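anyone seen this seq b4? input:
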Amino acid sequence: MLIKTIHGWELPERAATPEDVFINRRELLAGLGAGSIGLGLLSGKAEAGVDPSAKYYPATKNPKFADAGREITGEKLNTSYNNFYEFGTSKRISKGAQALKIRPWEIKIDGEVEEPFTIGFDDLLKKVMLEERIVRHRCVEAWAMTVPWTGFPLKALVALAAPKNTAKYVQFQTFHDPEMAPGQKPPLFGGGLPWPYTEGLTMAEATNDLAFMVTGAYGKPVANSMGAPLRLHCPWKYGFKSAKSINRITFTSKRPVGFWENIQAAEYGFWANVNPEVPHPRWSQAQERILGTDDKVPSKLFNGYGEFVADLYKDLQGEVLYR
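predicted toks r here
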């Protein structure tokens, strides 16, 4: 008799129905003069037509992350419904994201490291071992998806960077090109958003097995709309912590202030760990809506991945860990 082991992160699955999830941060951005842009399909291809990294996919599956406890979100839905404010505040930015030029792409490594350097994305791929992980993604807006990401553990990049002992945090920065990304253009009447997008982790978080640098999804190079060619994914945190289209990684002794924390620290903090018992100031986090369904399911502490990360926070009771 086959006995299925129920993992700590598993939730019951529901029948799929048409997706219509629309809780977002538009009201906050509207007051800052942000605009919106377009609908459509996407392409994860480089400008030349074929992504030079395509030969690395599909990658070997990591058996530790072979089952997220729920069905994988359909690729078409997943790549056409997400946040990427560089291209607008609409969830449907996939057409606009085709303007993202992913070759050439360089990542600058600097700050508290033995020797700062810049490396091309394709050269970086030669120095790491790619793997596929099926993991859950929880947006702060209370919707969720499940993605077969391909990439490599962030700790491999940390080792490559050779940080000094003085490095306590890692800051991730995305591109800044208003001509390419209309969402980065300053509004006509002043104000605007604090581009480029930045986020940060502690060194302990960055070297945890669960922290992942994404280069692909669905057995191919990651789509532009999902943050090509290189993004972060921290499945135990709300999605805004997972910076997209990263071109600079800085090791620092000072805690970074993230993009959303800079805009509204009362709502978006440094830690942003998932906790159903700690509501966002404007909505509950007790439940989440599975992208592609009409069902709401209970949220779980650390998005169900507490066995990997709970010990990171055992001595930080004085911190606001869940916002």
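Helices lie at 26-30, 75-80, 121-125, 154-161, 203-206, 259-263, 306-309. Confidence is low (pLDDT under 50) at residues 1-24, 32-47. kinda curious what u guys think
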